[in-house]
Amino acid sequence: MKNIRTLLLTVIVVVVSIVLTGCSTDHKSQILGNWISDQASQRAGSDEPLSHFNYLEVKEGQITLGNYVNEMKDDSTVKLVKDSNATMTYEWKSDNEIVINNSIYEIELEHDEMILRNENVEIHYNKTKQ
């Protein structure tokens, strides 16, 4: 009976460890991909470059910025990214701070959502499958 309890406890610990390891994602890889903002707020009188764009394509160390729009074409909606030639560099300062073009932002990454904020702006993004 004691061996069965020990075996069962060992199996439970192994399964929980595997599940928790699979659920956690490294923030440095989680940020990679395409992001569309759906909500932003900015302090009056401030001019944050990130707030001029609603689309980010994040690669290692670089962000390409653009504006995501839905256009009607032949009775169907087409998703387009316009003005996607602006780029910025980024680097991680800590697990919850990122430096984008020499400006420090607090970053929250959870599943397919990201929030970037500093004293002037807060922008919420959703990760896309593009």
Outline the fold blueprint.
Layout: H1 2-23, H2 27-30, E1 33-42, E2 55-59, E3 62-73, E4 76-94, E5 97-100, E6 103-110, E7 113-117, E8 121-127
Antiparallel strand pairs: 1-2, 1-8, 2-3, 3-4, 4-5, 5-6, 6-7, 7-8
Describe the overall structure.
The protein is extended, with a radius of gyration of 20 Å. The protein has an 8-stranded antiparallel β-barrel. The chain has 130 residues and is of the alpha+beta class. It has 2 helices and 8 strands, in the order H-H-E-E-E-E-E-E-E-E. 13% of the residues are buried. It starts with a helix and ends with a strand.
Instruction: List low-pLDDT spans.
Output: 19-24
- How many distinct beta strands? 8
**Average pLDDT over all residues:** 85
- End-to-end distance, in Å? 54 Å
Quick summary of this structure?
By secondary structure, this protein is α+β, with helices and mostly antiparallel strands. The chain contains two helices and eight strands.
